[in-house]
């Protein structure tokens, strides 16, 4: 466990364990939840489909393509929960593959219309 106070900035880093310098990481989705499994109850979304949902989120420069560094303010919307689980999904792509998910950035998925 990592202990952090409410309204404290939480700094994180995710890195690939690969010597291949041509691999790149992309933070696709990141949520904070009072449950250890990805549940819709009490979830605070930080990033979804590569789109920033938490206004306190910031990404930082990394000298390695295989490393993502970011921060956000500690779980502002989950104040009543003593334990919070952070769950992030990352995508691994080939560097300079401009058709890959890593280069698409934020993708707002439109909702489909329900037919009668």
UniProtKB/TrEMBL annotation:
Q: Which UniProt keywords apply?
A: Disulfide bond, Signal
Q: Does the record carry Disulfide bond as a key word?
A: yes
Gene name, per UniProt, is Dmbt1_5
Q: Tell me which residues make up the ZP domain.
A: 1-109
The upper taxonomy is: Eukaryota, Metazoa, Chordata, Craniata, Vertebrata
Superkingdom of the source species = Eukaryota
**The keyword Signal is annotated on this UniProt entry:** yes
Q: Which InterPro entries match?
A: ZP-C, ZP-C_dom, ZP_dom
Can you say what this protein is called?
DMBT1 protein
């Amino acid at each position: 466990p990592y202990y952090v106070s409410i309204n404290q900035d939480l700094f994180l880093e995710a890195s690939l364990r690969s010597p291949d310098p041509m691999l790149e990481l992309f933070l696709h989705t990141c949520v904070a939840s009072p449950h250890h499994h990805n549940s819709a109850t009490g979830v605070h979304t930080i990033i979804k489909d590569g789109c920033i949902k938490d206004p306190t989120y910031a990404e930082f420069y990394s000298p390695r393509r295989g490393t993502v560094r970011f921060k956000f303010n500690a779980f502002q919307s989950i104040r009543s929960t003593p334990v919070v689980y952070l769950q992030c999904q990352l995508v691994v792509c080939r560097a300079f593959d401009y058709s890959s998910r890593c280069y698409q950035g934020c993708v707002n998925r439109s909702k489909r219309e329900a037919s009668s």
